[in-house]
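Re: folding output
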Amino acid sequence: MTQSSSGRSIRRLGIVAIKNITYLFLVFCFIATGLHGGIKEDVKIILRTEYGDSIVFSMKKISLDKEVKAKIEPKVRQRFFKDFIYVWTIEIKKGEKVYGLLDNVKGKSMPITFLVIFDSKGSILNSHIVKYREPYGGEISSPKWMNQFKGRNASSHFVVGNDIDGISGATISVYSMSAGIMKLSLLFPKIKSLL
């Protein structure tokens, strides 16, 4: 190996290390702000907009069991962002409850925070992008695209191009969100007893 090729290899490693450190810093900033950075308030606004001001809801942090994760992650080919998720139990009418699961998926370089609302049987009632941090691909936040998930459940298909429409310029976000929503659809029946 010549001295110049050795120098190029070191520079490449340095660039990769800087990119990794930058990504870790951004993830740390995201985690540090977490629900205290307005996400919790954004979810409250979404829920009140969806169901009105008279709803009663509570939030709970649910730890994800390693066995549950081990069953779900290979099916969707996506890992859970953290070892827990936040779940809102929403009483919309006397005795009628729906459940909102908040999670994150990785976009091209930043997390996408999203909320999926399920009925008590595990069918998706609605889904929302709570926080989209990428400069491109924000079209996945559109109600038209998000409405594709309504009525789906743990036994539904979430194949981009067949069951889910793609969006030009948002390919990574589309695939990540489709897998993320499928992941929560598979998770909901497994955690419902904890709610």
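--- second protein (sequence, then structure) ---
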Amino acid sequence: MNINEILDDDKITAEEIVNVLIQNSVDHKIEKYYIVYIDFLGMKKIMQTYTDNDFCTVANKLATLVESIISGNASNEQLGIAHIDFHMFSDNMIFLCKDFYTLLDFIALLQRRIIIQLKMIVKGGLDYGSIYYYKNHFLLGSGLVSAYDIDENYSHPAIKIAKNISKEYFRNNKSIRRISDDEYIVDYLNHSSQYDIYDFAIEMMLHKKLVISNLNDFKNGPDKILFKYKWLQRYHNMICKEMNLEEHFINV
């Protein structure tokens, strides 16, 4: 019996109505995911101050960038690469994946392209936890809250990884950087060095130019923004020192 038959039947009982409703109910399960919550720094101001045409240009560039990386990952799923789900709302992005290494590789590439190609910076949190995921409808759970809390309590322009995950995966992983005992991040610059060293050198040069440009633009404040680019300067120079790239040092 379906809902239309119920409406046409004057003799239907309350129990029968409940049984039909249960049959038609959603029955998704809680699952464990690695989850990244990303906050675009400055995106709210862009949305508030840009014209519709200018903002549409920014949004299209961002959508093209994300789609290109998502598509690349999807094409490799037949080779055993784990699937990644993506959602964006306001100035936030959320990514879900069952495999940590797949998600780490994806996020490192995404963050690097956002800062180099779009000249935008992000921060965020990466954690593992319980998620209720009903595709294109609901994304809820303690895992999402935890990743959000990491981002909310973190001020540096980087993706901070939950400490328990970092301890598990840090050893011999060049895409995770230990900043302090309580601060492990997605090392998006060092991630690049593991592939094409020529591309890495070009990306370091572009990264240097962007950081210098913003250090100069915000040298008189606001201090909150200047602080973020000074942190990026220290991070950039840390990589240069390790890779003997003195020509790419930032000395502003």
